[in-house]
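Sample 3 of the quickstart, ligand NAP:
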Amino acid sequence: MTILVTTPNGGVGRHVAAALRDREDVRFLVRSQSGVEALGPVRGEVFRGDATDADDVRRAVAGVRRLYLAHPFAEDQVAAETGLGLAALDAGARRIVKLGARAFRGAGTVPDAVTGAHDAVTARLRDAGVPELSVLQPDRFLQNFLPAAASIAEGTLADPAGSGARGYVDVRDIAEVAVAELLADRPVGGEIELSGPDSLTLAELAAQFGAALGRPVRHVDVPLDEAWRAGLAARGVSPWLVDGLHGLYANYRGEGVAGLGDGVRRVLGRAPRSAADFAADQLAPALA
Ligand SMILES: NC(=O)c1ccc[n+]([C@@H]2O[C@H](COP(=O)([O-])OP(=O)(O)OC[C@H]3O[C@@H](n4cnc5c(N)ncnc54)[C@H](OP(=O)(O)O)[C@@H]3O)[C@@H](O)[C@H]2O)c1
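Result:
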């Protein structure tokens, strides 16, 4: 059995890779030499290739029986994930563990490009008849806040997701679920909603971060206005991506209180990591 792992340096993928780096039967798809170096030593195989290049994809999936399928939110996401998934199926893969996203529910939500991309990929894989398909549907990642650690430490959690509450999830839990689904004799399969143990507002999340850091932290709302768009554009984010993120954040703002997914308990038989766990063992050390 060969397992192909995509995005092994990604937010979730790096933890999937860490769990599988000592196995002989794992192939890691890495785009660049710097990615090979970031991945570090593995017992299996490192395959240099681009998920959007049909030739690379055909060679990457040769002999693969199981696939961890992930891709960043990008204009090429649906093409890349669909191409990889269908090529793997053609090459004889039986199981795909796809990283998706939790669907928005409720009157205040609208179609958005992020969940739309996941829906499109999942529909193609289902139509193609993947024998064992697990679709991980995590809520918002706690690790999204790591790049803002310095300003959080100064007392401000600035974020445009509004005043609703949701089950912020630790990417280490998502990766553990992915690995369990990849390796199980009988995977749980189907849609697996993943969230943390509690539904938290951003004000509550800021307070938990503050408790771990030993100083007050408060949430400051960032309106989804022209200044927000201009800030992203100035950082080189494309207009397509800005529109997609606008739809995503509008849904975070509109959903109100998001339900909690039970996937961590269903697959791993334990409670998910909490925001306090994340703050203590990742956010605080990032500032040390
Ligand atoms: N952030 C959240 O709160 C959240 C919540 C729910 C769901 N999600 C979903 O999570 C997914 C992203 O997962 P993630 O954060 O684990 O991934 P990620 O960190 O966004 O993945 C980045 C990795 O993808 C690799 N990559 C990009 N384009 C590639 C290509 N054409 N060929 C090969 N490799 C390529 C990059 O390689 P290089 O290093 O070479 O560039 C990089 O290592 C998205 O689909 C998103 O919708 C996110």
